[in-house]
Design a protein that fits this description.
This protein is mainly α. The protein is built from 21 helices and 2 strands.
Length: about 500
C-alpha cells in the first residue's frame, strides 16, 4: 500500500485537533474502566457506549470507538494481574504470571510491564498497519475453513503442551472445554446438544461465563477455604511501580518479537486476541532458558502476551477497514456502528476517505501513548485494591462477577451456570489441573468444529483438509512439533545426563 505523506500528515493534524484528543482521552479512560470488570470486555464496552457516537462526525466516532477498544484491552489485564480475574479472553494469559507476581509483592512491576508491552505492541502493529495493510488483507483471504481449523488445532496443541508433567490433565481439561463448546443448537443440523430440554441452554454456554466462573468465582472459593489462615494472606503490597534495568533487558525482545505475531493473528478474521496472547505465551515458554519459571511470576510471561494481544487489536482493524470483514467481535460491533453512521468500510475506503483512515491510524498512536501514561499513573490507585481486607474484597469480586454475568443475556439461568463453573474451577485448582486448555477450548471449540465440518464438505476427505494447501501443511507440522517439543526437550536432557555420567 502506497502511503501519501501529505495525506498522512493531514491525518496527523486532524488527530491532534482538541476535539479528537478529547475523544481519545475519554474513550481510553472509559475503555480501561469497563475492561477491568469481569465479563465486560472490549465488545461490550464499545456496544454500551455506541449511543455516545450518535450524531458525531464519522471520523470522531471511529476515533472514540477505537480508543474504547484498546482502552479495554489495557483494562482487561489490570484485573488479571491484581485479582486473577481476566476482563475477557485476551487477558487470560496475563493471569498466568501477572497474578503470581502480585502474590510476590511485584504488582507495580507487573502493571508497569503490562502497560509498556501494550504500548510497544500497539506501536509495532501500527507500523505494520501502515506498511502491510493491503498485502495482509489479501493473505487473510487465503484462509478457508481448513486453514482456520488447523490454526485452532495448533493453538490448542500449543497450550496443552505447556502442561509440563501434566499433559494428561491438560488433555482432560481441553476435552471438557470442547464439550462445553458443543452445548446448544447445532448450527448446521438444528439438533439440540446437551441442552437437557432447557430453552435457556439452546444458545449454548457463553464462554465469558466460563471464564468468570472458573477464574473469579473459583478463585474466591479457593481463598475462602483458607481465609482465616494468616499464612495465606499472601499479598505483600505493590512493590516498585517501575521495572528494573535487568527486567527491561529480559523483556524487550519478547515484547518486540511477539508484536508482529499478534498483529498477523489479529488480521485473521475471527482469530482474536485470545489466540494471539496464548500463542505468544506458549512460544516464549518453549524457547525460554528457564521454562520452569513460567507460571511462578516470570515477567516475560506478562510482557509477551500483553504485547501480542494489543497488536492483535490493531491488526483486527485491517480486514474491517479494507474488506468490510470484522476481525474480532469488537470490530464487528464497530463495523455495525460505522454503517449506522453512513460509512461503509471496504476496498474503496482508502481511495474515498484517506484522511479519515490516516486520522484513525494517528489517533491510535496518540491513544496508546495516552493510555500508557494513564495506566502508569493509576498503578498506585489500582494497587490499593490489594489492601482491601479479603472478607470485603472477595464478596465484592463475587458481586462484580454476578453483575457481569447478568449483563451478558439478562437471564437468571446464567447464575447457576456461573456457580457450576466456579465449583469446577475450585476442584481443578485443588487437583492441580491446568485451566488454560479448558478456557481456550471453550472459546475456539465451536468455531473449530464448524470450520472442520465446512472443510470436510468442501474437500475430498480428511487428507485433502490436512494437506490441501501450503498453509495447512505448515500448521500441521507446527502442531506435531508443539506436541513433541516437551518429549524432545526431555530426551535431550536425559541424553546430556547420560553423556555426563
Amino acid at each position: 500500500m502506497g502511503v501519501d505523506f501529505s495525506i498522512f500528515m493531514e491525518g496527523l493534524m486532524t488527530a491532534l485537533e482538541p476535539i479528537n484528543l478529547l475523544w481519545v482521552a475519554i474513550g481510553g479512560f472509559l475503555g480501561t474502566v469497563v475492561g477491568m470488570l469481569p465479563g465486560l470486555g472490549p465488545a461490550t464496552a464499545v456496544a454500551l457506549l455506541i449511543p455516545v457516537t450518535f450524531g458525531m462526525e464519522p471520523t470522531s466516532a471511529l476515533v472514540l470507538m477505537a480508543a474504547i477498544y484498546y482502552g479495554a484491552m489495557y483494562g482487561g489485564s489490570r484485573s488479571s494481574i491484581l485479582l486473577n480475574t481476566p476482563g475477557d479472553g485476551s487477558a487470560i494469559a496475563a493471569t498466568f504470571d501477572g497474578y503470581p507476581m502480585t502474590q510476590k509483592g511485584q504488582a507495580g512491576q507487573a502493571l508497569a510491564i503490562s502497560a509498556i508491552a501494550s504500548l510497544i505492541g500497539g506501536l509495532v502493529a501500527m507500523v505494520g498497519f501502515i506498511v502491510l495493510a493491503k498485502p495482509l488483507a489479501s493473505f487473510a483471504l487465503k484462509f478457508g475453513p481448513a486453514e482456520y481449523f488447523l490454526l485452532m488445532v495448533f493453538t490448542l496443541s500449543a497450550i496443552v503442551a505447556l502442561s509440563k508433567g501434566a499433559m494428561v490433565k491438560g488433555f482432560i481439561a481441553m476435552t471438557i472445554g470442547l464439550l462445553v463448546s458443543t452445548m446448544g443448537i447445532d448450527l448446521q443440523t438444528g439438533v439440540h446438544r446437551f441442552t437437557f430440554d432447557h430453552p435457556a441452554l439452546s444458545e449454548g454456554v457463553d464462554f465469558l461465563i466460563v471464564i468468570i466462573g472458573i477464574y473469579a468465582v473459583g478463585e474466591v472459593l479457593y481463598n475462602y477455604i483458607t481465609i482465616d489462615k494468616p499464612v495465606n494472606k499472601e499479598h505483600k503490597g505493590m512493590g516498585k511501580i517501575w521495572i528494573t534495568k535487568e527486567q527491561w533487558k529480559r523483556t524487550k525482545w519478547p515484547m518486540i518479537r511477539n508484536a508482529p505475531l499478534g498483529f498477523v493473528v489479529g488480521v485473521l478474521p475471527g482469530a482474536g486476541g485470545a489466540i494471539a496472547s496464548m500463542l505468544s505465551y506458549t512460544t516464549e515458554k518453549q524457547i525460554s532458558k528457564n521454562p520452569d519459571e513460567f507460571g511462578k511470576g516470570e515477567i516475560v510471561g506478562v510482557a509477551a502476551p500483553e504485547s501480542s494481544n494489543n497488536a492483535a487489536a490493531v491488526g483486527a482493524f485491517i480486514p474491517m477497514l479494507t474488506m468490510g470483514i470484522p476481525g474480532s467481535g469488537t470490530t464487528a460491533v464497530i463495523l455495525g456502528a460505522l454503517i449506522m453512521l453512513g460509512l461503509r468500510p471496504g476496498p474503496l475506503l482508502f481511495e474515498n476517505n484517506p484522511e479519515m483512515v490516516w486520522t484513525f491510524v494517528n489517533s491510535m498512536f496518540i491513544g496508546n501513548i495516552f493510555l500508557v501514561i494513564l495506566n502508569i499513573l493509576l498503578v498506585g490507585l489500582l494497587v490499593k485494591i490489594l489492601k482491601t481486607p479479603p472478607k470485603v474484597l472477595y464478596p465484592l469480586i463475587l458481586v462484580l462477577a454476578f453483575i457481569g454475568t447478568y449483563t451478558l443475556s439478562y437471564n437468571v439461568i446464567d447464575f447457576y451456570i456461573l456457580v457450576i463453573f466456579g465449583l469446577l474451577g475450585l476442584v481443578m485448582k485443588l487437583l492441580k489441573f491446568p485451566i488454560a486448555p479448558l478456557i481456550l477450548a471453550a472459546i475456539v471449540g465451536s468455531d473449530m468444529e464448524q470450520n472442520f465440518r465446512k472443510s470436510i464438505v468442501g474437500n475430498d476427505g480428511i487428507s485433502d483438509v490436512l494437506f490441501g494447501s501450503p498453509i495447512t501443511i505448515t500448521l500441521l507440522i507446527l502442531t506435531v512439533l508443539s506436541l513433541m517439543y516437551p518429549f524432545i526437550v526431555s530426551w535431550l536432557k536425559n541424553r546430556k545426563v547420560q553423556e555426563a555420567e
